[in-house]
Amino acid sequence: MLNFNEFKKDESNSIQEMFNSVVFNLITDIPDSLLCPNRDPDTRADILIKQAALKAAAVSTSLSIPAGFTGVLTSIPDIAAVWRIQAQLVSDIACTYGKFAMLTREAMVWCLFRHSAASLLRDVAVRTGSRIVVQKLSLAALQKLLQKIGVKISANFLGRIALRAIPAIGAIGNGAYTYFDTNEVGKTAKSYFKALEGVEKPELVENAIDKESESSDDGADQSASGENSAESTVHSSDENN
Asked: CA nearest 101: which of 22, 205, 203?
């Protein structure tokens, strides 16, 4: 019999590692789209969202059917497949609004996790009027952000893993959650790219996260400089004596 408490820690670490790998690949290699700008992007985006939500729900439901330990093993392929579907949805919506060139890695993270990790993403975007301006992050800041999101997402996902021990009900529950989750991703992407209509190129602003990192580095350098100066004074005093 599967002991969930003993498995919980290892599973959480596995999900976090998988998260960092899969999502980092998605945002550094944004999926291409075969779609073109649409004359009625709002209606087309709604259709894309519904199609993606149904597809993601079907994938999650089918991978959640096995119960017990086998069901737990399918949890990682499940969430990885769903994220790929959601990333493709974001890409397709961007193309539908003719804004694929503005789909940066930061915008992809915003669209994928805005609804599930809002508190962690509050410093990633700035509202200017009716638009959301996603800030450009350094690679180091982006990796740290993904790690934090990974901890939050994996903790929530462990509760869904428990449902897999219940035949049928667990599969339906996971499918319903995935449908809702994908729908939220689509709505975020639709709102973001719709608000960019009339904008020719992405607007970048200086990121507070990187500022904090630079301030910390400067503080560390000043501290080290102070220590070196103190050491020099001590050595000089010893030599004079």
From this structure: 203
